[in-house]
Design brief:
Blueprint: H1 9-28, H2 41-60, E1 62-63, E2 66-67, H3 69-129, H4 137-151, H5 155-164, H6 168-199, H7 204-210, H8 234-248, E3 251-252, E4 255-256, H9 258-273, E5 275-276, E6 279-280, H10 285-314, H11 317-340, H12 346-356, H13 360-370, H14 375-401
Antiparallel strand pairs: 1-2, 3-4, 5-6
Length: about 400
């Protein structure tokens, strides 16, 4: 009997997912002057895998010549995204309302300022760059709006842009722009939230103290007096995800909260309520933190492999520069606006920046850097404003400049 070794089909996909995660964490540990990619190293590993190994994965997930690799990666990405944002909502829920009431105007203003300057950067690049390209105006605009969506790591804006353009060819150009800008859109904000505390010589212990809020759970019955459906909290998490998907699927015209917005909203609601009658709706902290990290990793792998598969084919240096501008300008302007005009504390500022930039990976990094879950409330408060604004901005740019 001969010894054989074979990993095929969906098992090969799972094998690749965990191989990328293992290598990605090693990349994330590489530290230069106290700064590292952290969990975002998984995205870099996924992007490299997509560049060089995507054909092998596509071949393993083929039936009768038809590849199902795109569907497989979408499942990985969406499952991770739902885990992450729902867990973040639960964590932020108890303090979200009090924090939002206190800083409501600041969150709205900051979200609008960030997206406004991102959109202005996109418009400026279109008006200047169209004189130096052989593409038609509608083709160039489609790529640049894709760059905007990638620079702000905004899947809803990406989807809205594809739905707004007129043809399938233009949809593919939106995808090209999104893929080119997405890498720096992730890595740029991740590095920013690590560099700012170092450059400002911030006392993070003091900054954490400034974020302390009145515990919204005060006065609730103790957990052992509530009915526990099961010990870890998977029941309320699953219920929140179900409700979030349903809410995110409601369309008003061309707009919807999407799965991301729906799940974070339901996570906030469940986390704020804490219970339904005598039934406990709060998962254990350890469960939330574990699923938050697992969700982030799965999301980065699904998005990274898919983006990497087309990155080399369509990469253009000038497009990458445009994407960098669309990431850096709104991020820096937003930070300065929050610091000097809105007078937000450092961690509230950076938490709001991750929400305004709709950057899920950067929130994961900020949670690690700040060592407090309270920054998630600022992300959750600014994110919906930015989500709605960037979807509208991407559609307006296409309709007016194509």
């Amino acid at each position: 009997m001969g010894l054989s070794f074979s990993i095929e089909g969906t098992v090969f996909l799972v094998f690749c997912v965990f191989a990328i995660a293992a290598v990605g964490y090693l990349i994330g540990r590489i530290t230069v002057k106290g700064v590292n990619l952290g969990t975002a190293g998984v995205f870099v590993a996924a992007l490299l895998f997509g560049c060089f190994c995507y054909p092998s994965l596509a071949g393993q997930l083929s039936v009768d010549g038809v590849s199902y690799v795109t569907d497989g990666l979408k499942i990985v990405e969406n499952l991770g995204l739902m885990f992450f944002v729902t867990a973040v909502g639960f964590i932020a829920g108890p303090t979200f309302l009090s924090n939002f009431k206190k800083n409501f105007k600041s969150y709205v203003c900051l979200g609008l300022v960030i997206i406004l300057f991102g959109a202005l950067a996109c418009v400026g690049c279109i008006l200047i760059g169209r004189h130096f390209t052989n593409l038609a105006d509608d083709e160039f605009t489609a790529i640049l709006v894709g760059l905007l969506a990638g620079a702000l790591t905004s899947t809803p804006a990406f989807s809205a842009a594809k739905a707004t353009v007129a043809t399938a060819e233009l949809e593919s150009l939106v995808s090209v722009g999104y893929g080119i800008a997405y890498l720096f859109g992730v890595v740029g904000v991740v590095l920013f939230v690590q560099l700012i505390p170092k450059l400002t010589h911030a006392d993070l212990a003091a900054e954490r103290a400034r974020l302390q809020q009145v515990d919204a759970a005060e006065g609730r019955p103790l957990p052992d007096r509530l009915i526990q459906v099961e010990g870890f909290g998977f029941f309320p998490l699953s219920l929140a995800i179900l409700c979030g998907v349903a809410v995110g699927s409601v369309h008003i015209g061309n707009f919807s909260l999407t799965t991301t917005g729906g799940c974070i909203l339901m996570g906030l609601v469940f986390g704020h309520l804490g219970r339904l009658g005598r039934v406990n709706l709060m998962p254990k902290d350890t469960t939330l933190k574990a699923l938050r990290e697992l969700g982030l990793v799965l999301f980065l792998i699904g998005a990274g492999v898919a983006g990497g598969s087309r990155f080399v084919e369509f990469f253009h240096g000038i497009y990458f520069v445009y994407g960098v501008i669309m990431t850096v300008l709104p991020m820096v302007v937003g930070y300065l606006f929050a610091k000097y005009v809105l007078k937000l504390s450092l961690l509230n500022n950076l938490g709001s920046i991750t929400g305004g930039m709709t950057s899920t990976p950067a929130l994961g990094t900020l949670l690690s850097v700040s060592k407090t879950e309270s920054v998630a409330a600022a992300y959750a408060a600014t994110y919906p404003i930015a989500l709605i604004s960037v979807v509208i901005a991407s559609q307006v740019i296409i309709l007016t400049l194509s």
